[in-house]
Automatic annotation (TrEMBL):
The active site is at residues 412, 493. Contains 1 topaquinone per subunit. InterPro entries: Cu_amine_oxidase, Cu_amine_oxidase_C, Cu_amine_oxidase_C_sf, Cu_amine_oxidase_N-reg, DUF1965. GO terms for biological process: amine metabolic process. Pfam families: Cu_amine_oxid, DUF1965. Residues 260-327 form the DUF1965 domain. Its EC number is 1.4.3.-. It comes from Coniochaeta ligniaria NRRL 30616. This is Amine oxidase.
Length: 807
């Protein structure tokens, strides 16, 4: 559940401060909670200590070697000092009329976000590929302008940095918008953390407290002893110039498990909340058991009439709790197989610049509030393949016979992937030998650092990358690959983002989903999901996640070739006058933006290859990289969504290709949900017929899942099958497979029962660390959550711990 307090826009702290939560869930309590202690003890017992190898290298000293990045990371984050200087400068600008967040109410202007501005590619290339100076650095600032009856979010840029009181200026950030409006978006949530609840939703909750007590023994009135909750649709309905919300009652879990999204109660009410004056907001009706009542009186009268059908409540139980339950599986209390890095890490990291080198790969890591982690300047064997690779937006579009499910289409960058990219759990989210990086985000004049929130590690797959056997020899090569990973818990859902790099020059981009589903009350909605618990429907929804892939294949002049396998009937000189039913290849190019939005072909029959038409290999074939689905992908099933209108056109196709433009850096804006008819970025407007042959191209690809939760999604969806991915693979890019270069392969020659040769190609096996298993299991008591540094007033020497989630 992404409860929407206006706020969240950057802004967890406001969520925590602002949203009255009768059931405050301190992350501290939760994370330090039960279970951990027993687990730790169990691990100690099962740890076997062996010290018969080389004592000089320890398996835990496996961290990546430090390295100096060849160039500064121009996509990186602001330093603490830079962020603090920008904030101080902003508060000194009288025209911005800002109030410090701690003192601000719903009618004050505040700073929501201060982060680095991504440089224009045009300026960046001269630096990363040449000898030009780095592009000037600017800060991207988002202001929450609420001191007005027409509140807006304003994107501005401040710079150049470092701040200089005489030369630094700000101006509206307009160029990434497709909408012509000076870098501002209306704010429909300006009162969502205050008046909406205190003067509206809880008042309505109180007005039916007798009914909610009678029906389910709950009250939702904004009191400390509330036993239920009220929240509703996102985005709000924006029809006919009215702003309409539907809200529903939800049961609270009985403990700290985050199960509220599994506890819908089936009563909904509709409000017209247009404008900022709650006294003119109106209650438009109630829905219960598929019957609409046009006033509270009408609902109340029906409720207390004979024959009124009352349905039961969804109540938390073990079915909604994630702790171990059920009989312990055979031998499962013994420690499972695990991976180690016996010679330490085989890669290098510049932690300051977030620059990584592994084997022939290198890249920089960026991190943004809206979209979390992104990779830049991805090079293989010294040549850039991809300038920018990163998430743009994630949509979860629900459907249902009830207005809450029907009205829910989360556009998650509104909440942000950055603020919820929490600390990873060593040995669980990533192998215990992984190297970690911190990330940080700005909120309410503080910078929060998620410690260890990006992990980097090598992994050897459970299948080899190559093998072949004959009567004389067998040849087989280990499939060791490099992984960069982060996880963002956006409300009820946990998205795991993984990028993997392989020896054959291929890259995999994957997302997995776990956490709690958002479910529906089961009543008259068989066509929208499975019946999965007492009064519970696993509410159907589409996940669509858009990624930007700015390929630069052997330069920026790229084209997209389509090569299809098609059935054919052919006659050949040798077929003696008869025809043969067979198949052939048909090649074409995506010529321009009128034909550059399409889906994966049925039966995978069309290859999509990014090529450089000026770069042919020695055999005359175009050198390129092919883009292909890895596991299932999805685009949005709903056509012309009533919820989204023009706010998520990027979700309409699997693959969409545009000409790279500095004015089109992102396919979506974090506040598209605030004005769905006229969103700040309407992706469909990127397509204006421009030529796509031998141009700098951007491919926008969608990952996703059509999710119809079943009983196996209780208590949580599982990563095994809630999974989507795409791959990029060399297509005639090299003259042969590049995995031949690794020494981690073997050839075994044998003859008539005798092994005659074991060739391990100079692998060194003598530098392994002591297999001291106990310390290979990380000390999970070091899991601390986020660390926070106050920026205004700047207090860099007094960090404190605070971790806030949406719920
Ligand atoms: C500045 O903001 C305050 C609220 O913080 C508001 O009362 C005042 O009218 C605003 N001033 C201007 C000039 O907009
Ligand atoms: C710049 O302005 C800020 C805020 O008014 C002030 O604190 C700072 O001392 C000024 N710096 C310089 C170099 O004048
Ligand atoms: C954008 O707005 C400006 C100022 O309001 C106006 O002059 C211009 O014509 C508008 N452009 C478009 C394409 O609507
Ligand atoms: C109703 O809820 C209260 C707590 O809010 C609890 O004490 C009481 O036992 C419940 N009554 C029933 C009938 O479950
Ligand atoms: C909840 O608190 C309110 C106000 O403190 C009180 O009037 C009410 O009786 C309480 N309800 C329950 C069920 O304890
Ligand atoms: C509500 O419905 C009743 C009966 O259908 C109708 O008489 C009444 O006018 C309606 N009221 C409103 C405010 O629409
Ligand atoms: C992450 O932050 C923690 C706490 O501030 C710090 O101790 C650690 O060195 C940081 N890690 C990296 C890789 O910068
Ligand atoms: C890219 O193509 C354009 C013409 O389409 C050409 O002028 C330019 O020289 C090419 N650039 C490179 C690096 O080949
Ligand atoms: C989308 O739906 C709206 C409302 O039903 C309709 O006005 C509009 O014409 C539709 N657009 C398309 C492209 O079908
Ligand atoms: C980046 O490109 C946009 C669009 O061309 C331009 O308006 C803006 O000034 C550029 N930014 C910088 C820092 O040059
Ligand atoms: C294989 O080895 C066996 C004895 O180990 C021998 O009898 C036989 O002749 C050998 N066959 C060949 C083809 O060398
Ligand atoms: C242990 O490893 C070090 C460095 O890798 C090596 O120099 C040394 O000879 C090894 N010692 C033994 C006993 O294998
Ligand atoms: Cu789902």
């Amino acid at each position: 559940m992404r409860l929407l307090p206006a706020v969240l826009v950057g802004l967890l702290a406001q969520d925590v401060l602002g949203r009255p939560s009768p059931n405050p869930k301190s992350s501290w309590v939760r994370k330090g909670g039960r279970g951990k202690r027993q687990l730790h003890a169990a691990l100690k017992q099962s740890a076997e200590v062996r010290r018969d190898v080389n004592e000089t290298a320890s398996c835990t000293e496996a961290l990546a070697a430090p390295i100096k990045a060849p160039k500064a990371n121009i996509w990186g984050q602001l330093t603490n000092d830079e962020a603090a200087s920008v904030v101080a400068w902003l508060f000194a600008q009288e025209d911005l009329n800002l109030t410090v967040s701690d003192d601000a109410g719903a009618w004050d202007n505040t700073v929501l976000l201060v982060e680095s501005m991504i440089p224009n590619k045009t300026d960046a290339l001269g630096y990363i590929d040449g000898c030009k100076a780095p592009p000037k650095k600017y800060a991207h600032v988002v202001l929450d302008e609420r001191a007005s009856v027409d509140p807006t979010y304003a994107d501005i840029i401040v710079g150049p940095l470092p701040i200089d009181n005489t030369t630094t200026t700000w101006e509206p950030l307009t160029y990434p918008y497709t909408k012509n409006n000076s870098g501002k978006v209306r704010n429909l949530d300006a009162d969502a953390d205050d008046a909406l609840y205190s003067e509206w939703l809880y008042v309505i909750g109180a007005s039916v407290a007798d009914i909610t007590l009678d029906l389910w023994n709950i009250t939702a009135m904004g009191l400390d002893n509330d036993t239920g909750d009220i929240w509703g649709i996102d985005p709000l309905w924006q029809d006919d110039d009215r702003i309409i919300r539907w809200d529903a009652f939800w049961n609270y879990p009985e403990d700290d498990f985050d199960a509220e999204t599994l506890l819908p109660l089936g009563l909904y009410f509709m409000s017209d909340v247009t404008g900022r004056d709650p006294s003119v907001w109106s209650l438009e009706g109630w829905l219960y058991n598929n019957i609409f009542y046009n006033s509270t009186d009408a609902f109340r009268e029906a409720y207390f009439s004979p024959g009124f059908v009352k349905n039961g409540a969804n109540v938390e139980g073990d079915w909604a709790r994630t702790d171990q339950q059920g009989e312990v599986l055979p031998k499962d209390d013994a420690y499972p197989p695990t991976t180690i890095a016996p010679t330490g890490s085989r890669f290098s990291v510049d932690a300051e610049e977030k620059y990584v080198e592994w084997m022939d790969w290198s890249f920089y890591i960026g991190f943004k509030r809206d979209t979390g982690m992104a990779l830049y300047d991805i090079r293989y064997k010294g040549k850039r393949l991809i300038y920018e690779l990163g998430l743009q937006e994630a949509l979860a579009h629900y459907a249902g016979n009830d207005p809450l499910q029907s009205g829910t289409s989360y556009l998650d960058t509104y909440y942000g992937f950055g603020p919820y990219a929490f600390e990873l759990v060593s040995g669980y989210d990533c192998p215990s030998y992984a190297t970690y990086l911190n990330t940080s985000f700005y909120v309410t004049e503080t910078v929060h650092t998620h410690i260890d929130s990006i992990c980097l590690f090598e992994f050897t797959g459970d299948y080899p990358i190559q093998r072949h056997s004959t009567s004389k020899y067998v040849s087989v090569t280990k499939n060791t690959y490099f992984v960069v990973r982060s996880v963002s818990t956006v409300g009820n859902y946990d998205y795991m983002f993984t990028y993997s790099f392989y020896f054959d020059g291929s890259i995999a981009v994957e997302v997995r989903a776990s956490g709690y589903i958002q479910s529906a009350y089961f009543a008259n909605n068989e066509d929208y999901g499975f019946h999965i618990n007492d009064f519970l429907s696993g509410s159907m929804h589409d996940h669509v996640l858009n990624y930007k892939v700015d390929f630069d294949i052997l330069g920026t002049n790229n084209s997209v070739q389509l090569m299809s396998l098609v059935p054919a009937t052919k006659e050949y000189p040798w077929s003696k006058g008869k025809t043969r039913n067979t198949m052939v290849l048909e090649r074409s190019f995506v010529e321009n933006e009128d034909e550059s939005r399409f889906n994966w072909a049925e039966n995978g029959a069309t290859q999509v290859i990014v090529v450089n038409e000026d770069e042919k290999n020695e055999f005359g074939e175009l050198r390129g990289y092919r883009v292909l689905p890895y596991t299932g992908t999805a685009h949005l099933t709903v056509k012309n969504s009533s919820n989204l209108v023009n706010a998520a056109a990027w979700a309409e196709y699997d693959i969409q290709i545009t000409k790279q433009k500095d004015t089109e850096p992102r396919s979506a804006h974090a506040y598209n949900s605030q004005d769905v008819k006229d969103p700040p970025i309407d992706f469909a407007k990127f397509f204006d017929g421009e030529d796509l042959r031998s141009e700098d191209l951007v491919m926008w690809v969608n990952l996703g899942m059509h999710h119809v939760p079943h009983t196996g999604d209780l208590p949580n969806t599982v990563f095994t099958t809630a999974h989507s991915g795409i791959q990029f693979m060399p297509s005639n890019y090299f003259s042969m497979d590049q995995s031949r270069q690794t020494v981690n392969m073997v050839r075994i020659d044998y003859d008539n029962g005798t092994t005659t040769l074991v060739d391990t190609f100079g692998q060194k096996n003598d530098e392994a660390c002591a297999l001291d298993f106990e310390p290979a299991e990380p000390d999970l008591y070091s899991y601390t959550g986020d660390v926070v540094i106050r920026k205004f007033p700047y207090d860099p020497n007094n960090p404190y711990f605070e971790t806030d989630s949406i719920v």
